[in-house]
Amino acid sequence: MRIACFYPRSPFASWNICGGIVETLRRMGHEVIDCFTPPNPNRDSIPAHLIDRIKADLPTIEALNKCDLILVSGPEHIAVWLDAVYGTYEWKNAITTVKAGWYHESMNRSDGAEIDFTQVGWVSHFHFFPAAQDVEFFDQPHLYGGRCWWAPFAVDTAIFTTHTEECLCVGSPDYICKEAQKY
């Protein structure tokens, strides 16, 4: 499969649900277009020169339409970039490839803040949530009925493994194997 994988390149997001997805999909034999964006800018407007720079690095609508799947990891964090680069209307209508959104957070966060995922529902056709209660809520007919699944986070076991002689840190609580050195 040819997959375009969008994700935020951020020190605040786990490697497994960002750049690690690209590496894992490639190991599985897929052709992957690496489409990272900066983290959410958390402001009302993004400078035009920054949008132009990001746009130059991301695939065109024509290139995305040649893919079998568009995977958006963290739509709640990068929808603002997708809108700025492609436009909401174009993303929804001109890009005909199936889009799957893999959310990074639950709508009910432990810090008391709530995220309104309905604001980024336009990003994907199918929605994968790390919290089962979000699937239950959003799988209602008037929201994303029939298009939501629970997808708990996982670990790339080719990079993170149990203690062996091949591990870099035998005797420590870290479980990073030598293969991780190249990343």
In short:
This protein has 183 residues and is of the alpha/beta class. It is built from six helices and six strands; from the N terminus they run βαβααβααββαβ.
What's the structural blueprint in terms of helices and strands?
Blueprint lengths: L1 E7 L10 H9 L3 E7 L10 H10 L3 H4 L4 E5 L1 H12 L1 H6 L5 E4 L23 E4 L2 H7 L9 E3 L33
Parallel strand pairs: 1-2, 1-3, 3-4, 4-5, 5-6
Helix pairs in contact: 2-4
* Helix content class: 25-40%
Terminal-residue CA separation: 24 Å
Number of strands: 6
Fraction of residues in β-strands: 15-25%
Verbal overview:
- With 183 residues, the chain is of the alpha/beta class.
- Helix content is 26%, strand content 16%.
- It has 6 helices and 6 strands, in the order βαβααβααββαβ.
- A 6-stranded parallel sheet has the order 2-1-3-4-5-6.
- Helix 6 links the parallel strand 5 and strand 6.
- Helix 2 packs across helix 4.
Question: Notable features of this structure?
Answer:
six-stranded parallel sheet, disordered C terminus, 183 residues, 6 helices
